[in-house]
Amino acid sequence: MLINCAAYQQGVKLADLAPEEIGGYLDRPDTFVWVALRDADSAELEVYRQQFNLHPLAVEDALKGHQRPKVEEYGDDLFVVMHLIDWTGGELLRGEVAVFVGRNYVLSVRNGSKVHFLGVRERCEREPELLRQGPSFVLYALMDTVVDRYFPIVDILESELEEIEQSIFTSGAARDNIQRLYALKRRLMLLRRAVSPMLEMLSKLHGGRIPPVCAKSNDYFRDVADHLARIYGAIESVRETIGTAIQANLSMVAIEDSDVTKRLAAWAGIFAAATAFAGIWGMNFELMPELKWRWGYPLALGLIVSVCLGLWYRFKRAGWL
Amino acid sequence: MLINCAAYQQGVKLADLAPEEIGGYLDRPDTFVWVALRDADSAELEVYRQQFNLHPLAVEDALKGHQRPKVEEYGDDLFVVMHLIDWTGGELLRGEVAVFVGRNYVLSVRNGSKVHFLGVRERCEREPELLRQGPSFVLYALMDTVVDRYFPIVDILESELEEIEQSIFTSGAARDNIQRLYALKRRLMLLRRAVSPMLEMLSKLHGGRIPPVCAKSNDYFRDVADHLARIYGAIESVRETIGTAIQANLSMVAIEDSDVTKRLAAWAGIFAAATAFAGIWGMNFELMPELKWRWGYPLALGLIVSVCLGLWYRFKRAGWL
Amino acid sequence: MLINCAAYQQGVKLADLAPEEIGGYLDRPDTFVWVALRDADSAELEVYRQQFNLHPLAVEDALKGHQRPKVEEYGDDLFVVMHLIDWTGGELLRGEVAVFVGRNYVLSVRNGSKVHFLGVRERCEREPELLRQGPSFVLYALMDTVVDRYFPIVDILESELEEIEQSIFTSGAARDNIQRLYALKRRLMLLRRAVSPMLEMLSKLHGGRIPPVCAKSNDYFRDVADHLARIYGAIESVRETIGTAIQANLSMVAIEDSDVTKRLAAWAGIFAAATAFAGIWGMNFELMPELKWRWGYPLALGLIVSVCLGLWYRFKRAGWL
Amino acid sequence: MLINCAAYQQGVKLADLAPEEIGGYLDRPDTFVWVALRDADSAELEVYRQQFNLHPLAVEDALKGHQRPKVEEYGDDLFVVMHLIDWTGGELLRGEVAVFVGRNYVLSVRNGSKVHFLGVRERCEREPELLRQGPSFVLYALMDTVVDRYFPIVDILESELEEIEQSIFTSGAARDNIQRLYALKRRLMLLRRAVSPMLEMLSKLHGGRIPPVCAKSNDYFRDVADHLARIYGAIESVRETIGTAIQANLSMVAIEDSDVTKRLAAWAGIFAAATAFAGIWGMNFELMPELKWRWGYPLALGLIVSVCLGLWYRFKRAGWL
Amino acid sequence: MLINCAAYQQGVKLADLAPEEIGGYLDRPDTFVWVALRDADSAELEVYRQQFNLHPLAVEDALKGHQRPKVEEYGDDLFVVMHLIDWTGGELLRGEVAVFVGRNYVLSVRNGSKVHFLGVRERCEREPELLRQGPSFVLYALMDTVVDRYFPIVDILESELEEIEQSIFTSGAARDNIQRLYALKRRLMLLRRAVSPMLEMLSKLHGGRIPPVCAKSNDYFRDVADHLARIYGAIESVRETIGTAIQANLSMVAIEDSDVTKRLAAWAGIFAAATAFAGIWGMNFELMPELKWRWGYPLALGLIVSVCLGLWYRFKRAGWL
User: Fold this and answer.
1) Closest chain A C-alpha to B279 CA, distance in angstroms
2) Per residue in B281-308, is it b (16+ CB within 10 Å) or e — as a string?
3) Cα–Cα–Cα angle for A281, A286, A292, nearest 5°?
4) How high does pLDDT run on average in chain C?
5) Could you tell me which chain E residue has the CA closest to the CA of C231?
6) How many CB pairs under 8 A join D and E?
7) Would the CB atoms of E283 and D297 count as touching at under 8 Å?
C-alpha cells in the first residue's frame, strides 16, 4: 500500500507524485524521489523495481520478509533491512522495514508493524539544509527513528529486571522469579537479534570504506551507530545480570531449603525426645518404682519439658529455629 | 551413479551427454558441462578426474566423505563440500555433497542422503539469463538449495524448544524436560557443525578477494551467506535458550524439592505433636489425676486436635502447606 | 554554568576571558582557549557552538547526556565523552564529562557529578612546558584525572570482595554473602560500562592513525590507556572471582544442608530406635514374661540406652554427628 | 638413536647414508637428505646441527622437549614441533616429534612415544612424483600421519561420551557418570592442547605469506589443516556436550533426590498417622467408652487402615509414590 | 640501591663503572652500559634519567610500581615492565622489574621481590658472541629468566590441582575441596595477570613491525614468547579444570546428600513400621483377642521383625542402604 511518494530538490519538496510520474524526476539535478510503502505485494513492488532498477534478490528479500538486519550493496545502490520492535500488551512484536537507497531515490517498505514513519518525513522537510544531503540523509533519519524506538524497550526490560531483583532475596518468590527471568531473557534475545546485526551493518556505513551514496552522511551514521552501541551495552549488561540473578535465585532456593531442613530437624528432634521418654514410662514392666512415686508424674512431665526446652534453646542458639 | 550430465551454452542446454562425450564440449566458447553423481566410487570419479583435471586431494576428499563444510581453491578451480541435513523419523541424518567447479564444468557428488537436487537443474534451465553466469551460478543454486533446506530443520528445533518451554514451569515434568533438552542440544550441535564452517567458507566467495570463477555471482553468494547468517543466529539463540532452560529446569526441581520438604516438615510436625501428647497420657504413672476426670479424655482429644489445627493453620499461613 | 574560561599561549596563561572575548584569541599563533562548564543548558552551549564552530550532533550529545564513553572526530575536531564515577554513601553514582577539542580550543562540560576538575587546571598551569603541547595535553590531563579516580573505586570493590570472601566458608552467612555478591556484581558492571568503551576509544588516540590534534600527546594517551588497561584487568579479575565465589557459596550451602540432613538422620535414627523398643514393651499382650522379671525394667532401659549409644557412636565415627 | 638416513634426488632415493656422508649430498641439485632420529641426546644432535647449520634455540627445544606444537622460521629454515598422542592401556600418553626442515634436508627427532614413522618413508618412496616437491613434502607426510593418528583418539573419546550418555538418565549411575565425565574432560583437554596450537601453526603454512621452503606443498598443508579443523570441531563439540552432560547429571541427581524426598515424606506421613491414632487409643484415661465397645478394636483398626490407604492413594495419584 | 653497573663493548665487559662515569662510554662504538638497581628511589633514578635521557612518564611508572606487564616505545627507546612471582611460605607474592632499553644502555629496576638477576649477568658475560647483539640481548636474557621462573609456579599449581582431584570423588572432603579450589583459582588468577599481558607485549617484539632496538634478537624474543604461550596454555587448562572440578564437587555433594536422604528414609521407614505395629498392640481396647493368645507376643514380635527385615531387604536391593 502506497503511503507517500514525493520528489525533493536541494532538500525542498517539489511535489507529491503518483508512481507513474516518478520517471520524470529521476534525471533532474540534485533531485531524489522518496517513496514509502506498507505491506507491499509483488505487483506493487514491480512498478518501483522497474523505475529504480532494483536488484531482483533485494526485491525478493523485501517481499519475503523475515530477514535479519543487514545492509547490502548492489552496484552503487544500497539495500537495508531493519527490525521494528513494538511493545504491545506486555509482549514484544517484531516487524521489519526494508529500505532501497540509490543516488536519486529512497524506497522504504514496512512490514508487520503498526508503527509508522510519518514523523520522519515531517522532520526531514523541516530541515532542508540537512535533507539536501540526499537519500542517505533519509536513510539516516529512518535508522535514527528505528534506533530511538529501541530505547524505551530497553528501559522496559531494565525496569522489569529491577522489579524482579527486588524480590530475589525475599523468600517464597523463587518460582515466580525464575519464570519472569526466563521470560525476560527471551524478550531480551529478541531485541538482541535486532540490535546485534544492525550494529555490525552500521560499521559498514561509517569509517573505513563507505558506500559512495552514504559518503556525505558519514557523521550521522556514526551517531546512530553510537546510540546503537549504547543499547547493545545495556542489553549485554541486562543479559549478564539475568544470568547472575538466575544463579542467585537458585542459591536462595537452596538456602531456604536448608533453613527448612534445619527447622524440620530441630522440631523433629524435640518431639522425638518427648515421645521417647513418654514411651519409656508407657512400658508395662511390673517393677517400675517411679511409676508409684507421689511426684513421679509431675517429675516426668518436668523432665520431658525441660529436655524439650533445653533442645529448643540449643537449636535457637545455633540458628536452626 | 550418474544422475545427469549435460552441456550448456550461454545458459541454454545443448545436449545430454554420455561421460565420454564431455571432452568435445570443454573448449567451446561460453560453454560448460554440468555433471551430477550420487554415491560415486573411485572408478566412476576417475573418468571425470581426467576429463576435468581434478586435483587428487579433492577427489580423495569427495570419495572418503565425512568432511567438514569447506571451500578450497586448487589453482583456478574450486572444491566445495556442504552438509545435507535430513529430518527422518524424528532424527537428524547427515549427508554430504561435494562440488567441483571450474571455468567450464560443474561436478556434484552427493553421498548418504536421500534428498536430490533435480529441482535445482530445472530451476536453472528455466532461467537461462542467470545460468549464463556459468558454473558459479550452478554452485550458487546448489548452495541456495542446501541452505534453504536448513530452514525447516531450524523451525523443527525451535518449535521443539517451545514445546519443552511450556512444561518447564509445570511440576513433575523435570525429568522428561532435561532429557528432551539434552537431545535437542545434540541435534542443534549437529546442525551447527554444518552451518558454522559453511558460514566461514561463504565469506571467501563474496567480498574481499573472490576466486575468479565466482566473480560474476558475487551478489548471489552474499545472498546465500545472508540466509545462512540468519540460520546461524537462530541456532545460537536456541543454544543459549537451551542453556537457560536447563538452569531454569534445575531451579524448578530445587523449588519443588523445597516445597516437598516444607510439606513433609509441616505434616511431620503435626503428627509428631499428636503422638507426643498421646504418649504422655499413655504413661503408666499411678498418680495421673487427669486420667480419672470425667471429661479427661474429651479434653485431651480436644487439646490434641486444637494443637494440630493450630500448627496446621500456622503452616498454611507460612505457605508450607 | 561557566566555571572557568582562559586563553593560553605557549602553555602560559594570558588572561581570564569572558565568553564574548574568546573570538579575539582564536587566531593568535600557539594560542588556545580553555573553557570549563558545568550542567550547561542549550542557550549557554550555543555561544560556544558558534565561537568554536562545534558540530550540532556533538552539541546535542553533550546536552542530552547519558552517552556511553566515546571519541568522535568531526573534521579535525574531537568530541570526547567520559563517565565520572563517584562513591557516595555506599553507592556508585555516574556523572559525565563531555570534552570538545580543536586546534585552538578545549571545552569541557561536566554533568551530574559533584567532582570538579579545578586541580587539573592548576596542575597544567604549573607545567607550561607540557601545556605547550596545546589542547591535546588538556584532554590528556582531564582523561588522566578521570581514570585516576577509577582506581580508588576499584580498590573499594576489591576490598569488599575480600571481605565477603572471608565469610564464604563460615557457615550461616550464605544468604548475606549471595546478597552482597549480587550487589557487588551490579556495581562492578556499572564501572565496567565506564571503562570498557573508554579503553576502546583510547586505542584511537595512540598507535595506528591518530587524529592530528592529538599527535603531539601520543605517548601521554598511551599512558592513560595503560592505566585503564590495568583497571580493566582488575575489573575482569573481580568479575571472574565473583562468579567463582557465587559457585563456592552455593556449594557451601549444599554442603551445610547435607551436614544438617546427616545430623537429622542420625538423631532421628537414635530416637526412633528408643521409641520402637519402648513401644514394644508397651504392648498389652498378657503373656510377656520379661515384664514380670525383677530386673526387666533396668535391663530394658539398659538395652535401649546401649542401642542408642551404639548408634550414636557409629554416627559419630561416620562424621554424621 | 639414528633410525634412518638417506639422500633423495628428484624424489628418488639415492643411497642410505652414514651421518658423516651427509655433507657430500647437500650441494647436489634437486637433492635432499632425510634423517630420522629417536630420543636423540645432545651429542647426537650436535653432528646434525653442524651439517645442517641448525639454530641453537631450535636444537635446545628439540632436546628439552615438553614444547607446545609450533612452527618457527629461522631464516629460510623451519622448526616444527608436534604432539604425538598414544592410547595405551586406557590412558592418553603424550610424546613429541620435532622436525627441522631446510632447502636440502629434513631432520625429525621423536621423543617419548612408541609410535614410529617408518610407514611415512615407505609411502613417500612409493610416490616419487610427489616426493620431488622436496623436504616440504616430507614435512607434509609427517604432519598428515600425526594428524591421522588423532582421528581414532577422537573416536575413542566420542564413543566413551556416548556410553556415558546412555546412563545419564538411568538412576543410580550419577556418581559413576560424574567421575567418568571428569576423566573424559581431562583426556579431551590433553588432546586439545595438541590440536589447538597446531591448527594455529598450520595457518602459517598455507594461505597468506608462506615460508619459501613450503611454497610447493601449499595445497597439501591446507589439506592437513582441514583435517585438523575437523578434529578440532569434534573436540569442541565433545567439550560442550560434556558441559551439558555434567549439568544434566546434576539435574538428574536433584530430580532423584526430590523423588526420594517425596517417597520419604509420603511413607513418613502414612506411618505417622497410624502411630498417632494408635497412640490416642493407647492413652490410659478411665473414661474412654470406645475401648469397651464390642467392635471398638476392629473399628479402630479399620479406621487406621483406611486412613493409611487414603493417604497412600492420594500420594500415589500425586506421583509421590 | 645500585647492584651493578658495567660497560660492554662487542659483548665483552670493559669495566665496572660508577654512575657518574657512564657518560664517557655512551658514545663509543658497539658499546653499551648495563645498570641494575633495586628498590630505587626518585633521587637515584634521576641520575640515570639524565644520563640515558629517559622519558618522564616511564620513570614515573618505574617509581610508582604496581604496573601491569607492558612494553612501551618512547622514540627509539623501550620501556618494559614484567611481574616477578615468588612462591614463599605457601603463598604467591608479586614483585616487579622495570627495564629501560636504548641503543647504548640497559637499566633494570627491581621492586619488592627477593629474587635477584645476578645469574643473568654471569650467563651473558659467558657468551660474548651473543651479548654482542647489544642491549636487546640483555632484555631477552632478563625476560627469559623471568619467564623460566614461572614454570615452577605453574608446576606447583598443577600438582596442587592434582592433589585436590584425588579427593574430589572421596566422600566427606567436599568442604575442604571447595575451599582449596577457591584458593587455587585466586593464585592462578594472580599468575595469569602476570602472564596474559606479557604474552600480548611480546607479540610486539617479534614478527610484524619490531622496535629497531630489538631487531637483532628477533628469534630470541620469539623463543620467550613461545615459552610464555606454553605457560599460558597450562594456566588456561588449569583454569578450565578448576571450573569443572567445582562443578564435579557440587555434584558429589548433591549425590552424597541424596544417599544420606535415602538411608534416612529407609531407616525411618523401618523404625516407623515397628513403632506403628507396637502402637497398635499398645492400644487399650478391652476386646483384643490376640493379646490373650498364648503365642500372641512372640507372633507379634516375629511379625514386627519380619516386616522390618522385609523392608530392610527391599531398601538394600534398591541401593538405599
Assistant:
1) 5
2) bbbbbeebeebeeeebbeebbeebeeeb
3) 60
4) 90
5) E68
6) 138
7) yes
Q: For residue range A242-269, list pLDDT tens digits in order.
A: 999 999 999 999 888 888 888 888 888 8
A177-231 pLDDT, tens digit per residue, is 999 999 999 999 999 999 999 998 898 888 777 888 888 888 899 999 999 999 9
Tell me which chains share at least 3 CB pairs under 8 Å with chain E: C, D
pLDDT at C207 over 80: no
In angstroms, the separation between the Cα of residue A194 and the nearest Cα of chain C is 20
From the list E88, E106, E79, the residue with the least C-alpha distance to E8 is E106
- The H-or-E segment that residue E154 falls in is helix E150-168
Interface test with D, best of E148, E158, E258 (most D CBs within 10 A): E258
Mean pLDDT score, D170-184: 90
Q: Name the band, by pLDDT with cuts 50, 70 and 90, for residue B192.
A: very high
Residue of E nearest to C243 (CA): E243
**CA-to-CA distance for E221 and B206, rounded, in angstroms?**
38
DSSP A4: E
Give the residue from E221, E128, E224, E220 showing the smallest Cα distance to D55.
E220
Instruction: Determine which of B11-15, B177-181, D141-145, D316-320 has the lowest per-residue pLDDT on average.
Output: D316-320
Partners of residue B100 on adjacent β-strands: B79, B107
DSSP H or E stretch at residue C64: helix C56-64
Which residue stretches of chain E have pLDDT < 70? none
Contacts of D232 in chain B (CB under 8 A): none
* Per-residue cell: A142: 529512518
Is the minimum CB–CB distance between D245 and chain B shorter than 8 Å?
yes
* Edge-to-edge strand list for the sheet holding B12-16: B12-16, B2-9, B31-38, B105-111, B91-101, B77-88, B70-74
Q: Which three cell numbers stand for residue D11?
A: 624424489
Assembly ipTM: 0.83
Q: Which residues of D265-278 are buried (b: 16+ CB within 10 A; e: fewer)?
A: bbbbbbbbbbbbbb
> Does pLDDT of B90 surpass 90?
no
Residues in chain C: 321
Measured CA angle at A154 (ends A149, A156), to 5 deg: 105
Q: How many CB atoms lie within 10 A of CB A210?
A: 16
Among C285, C304, C307, pick the best mutation site for testing chain E contact (most E Cβ within 10 A). C285
Is residue A176 less than 8 Å (CB to CB) from chain B?
no
Contact yes or no for E68 and C226 at CB 8 A = yes
Instruction: Give dist(CA B22, CA A106) in Å, integer.
Output: 49
Look at A260 and B262 and tell me if their CB atoms are within 8 Å: yes
Alpha-carbon span A276 to B279, nearest angstrom: 9
Contact status of D208 with chain B (Cβ, < 8 Å) = no
E291 contacts chain D (CB < 8 A): no
Q: 3-state DSSP call for residue B188? A: helix
Chains with ≥3 CB–CB distances under 8 Å to A: B, C
Contacts of D264 in chain E (CB under 8 A): 261, 264-265, 268-269
Interface-testing mutation among D96, D178, D203, D236, with chain E (most E C-beta atoms within 10 A) = D178
What is d(CA A104, CA E195) in angstroms, rounded to the nearest whole number?
56
Burial of E221 (0-12, 13-18, 19+ CB in 10 A): buried
Per residue in D261-282, pLDDT tens?
888 888 888 888 888 888 999 9
Full-model pTM: 0.87
Per-residue model confidence as pLDDT tens digits over C163-174: 999 889 887 788
For residue B89, give the DSSP letter.
T
- Give the Cα separation of D263 and D316 in Å (integer): 10
Q: Where are the strands (E) in chain B, listed by range?
A: 2-9, 12-16, 31-38, 70-74, 77-88, 91-101, 105-111
